């Protein structure tokens, strides 16, 4: 597994790097997962020390967590690792059984993603065309090809409010999202005509 352990305005010493590697290997080994690479970033967040971790699994799924501690960088990492452990424990059976048939990693397609200006007063006006939003940033979004169950699991493992994915049954673009009532919503626009 490849590790990228760094700090933003924090010196990450050899002892901390060794601790992080050992704990992550133990956590993922316990659930018999095969992580391909891990990115752990330590930083300051106001008066707290923060740890952000993202681990990519060989199945194509990502596990990510963020935690803070006011005094100790090791404690911030342990809280982050505990969150990842809880996510893996919650999905252990699904991760273990669901991907037995999967022989290749999850496929990803690239899609443009845009950030639009929030203030409508700044939007451009084109005569009869009406108001046009101003693009503030343009990035590329990776859209995975997953089943609906895998998409929900990936969204929850990543702690994201929504996930855009290509449905592996019919190839159409779908969205799963966390609803205000706590349930998960699924948008499947293939029947629109």
TrEMBL record:
GO biological process terms, semicolon-separated: negative regulation of translational elongation
Keywords: Cytoplasm, Translation regulation
SUPFAM superfamilies per UniProt: Ribosome binding protein Y (YfiA homologue) (SSF69754)
Subcellular location: Cytoplasm
InterPro entries per the UniProt record, alphabetical: HPF/YfiA_ribosome-assoc, HPF_long/plastid, RHF-like, RHF/RaiA, Ribosom_S30AE_C, Ribosom_S30AE_C_sf
UniProt cross-references to CDD domains, sorted A to Z: RaiA
MF-aspect GO terms: ribosomal small subunit binding
GO cellular component, one term: cytosolic small ribosomal subunit
A Pfam family this chain is assigned to: Ribosom_S30AE_C
Residue span(s) of domain Sigma 54 modulation/S30EA ribosomal protein C-terminal: 132-185
Zinc listed as a keyword: no
Keyword Cell membrane among UniProt keywords: no
Summary of subunit composition and partner proteins: Associates exclusively with 100S ribosomes, which are dimers of 70S ribosomes. Interacts with 100S ribosomes.
Purpose: Required for dimerization of active 70S ribosomes into 100S ribosomes in stationary phase; 100S ribosomes are translationally inactive and sometimes present during exponential growth.
Matches recorded under HAMAP family: HPF
UniProt record similarity statement: Belongs to the HPF/YfiA ribosome-associated protein family. Long HPF subfamily.
Name by which UniProt lists this protein: Ribosome hibernation promoting factor
Gene name for this UniProt entry: hpf
